What does this fold into?
Amino acid sequence: MATDAELLRESRRRPDAYVEVCQRHAEDVSGWLRRQVGAGEADDLLAETFARGWYARRRFRDPGTGSAGPWLQGIAANLVRDYRRRGAVESRARRKLGLPPIAGQDAYADADERLSAASEYAAMGVQLDGLPAEQRAALELRVIEELDYAEIGTRLAVSPTTARTRVHRALKSLRLTMNGGKR
It folds into this structure.
């Protein structure tokens, strides 16, 4: 029986060899993901883990055991970290904007909440139109695109500190406007 390392090398010529690697580790990685994020999100993250593994398979380095399990687990751990970071960013942004928290992780509830947030965002158009253009652009990249400050800075050709300041000022202005000028 071929090792995972051998199958990953073979997958360059025969893609179904990668499927065998995934089948060997699907149960373990899936179980770990379910413990980390729950059943609703685990399947999506498992699929993303295997997709990223496919594109990164040439960079796999055999730890000596021939097993790709720890490598796939590392990819999954990075995805969980990113998932939690996005959730934390979204929660903070919703709190700062005075929007209600998202209830539950159910896929339908999440979609419904996103639609609701989009309509609330549209209703805030007047307040957003009152923001300086650079603050509004930074806020949209942070809240809607869920980018970190380094990426916002890159996109807006400013430093990450300036990007953070613009987002902070935009949120402060929106809070004041929504609270009738009260802090």
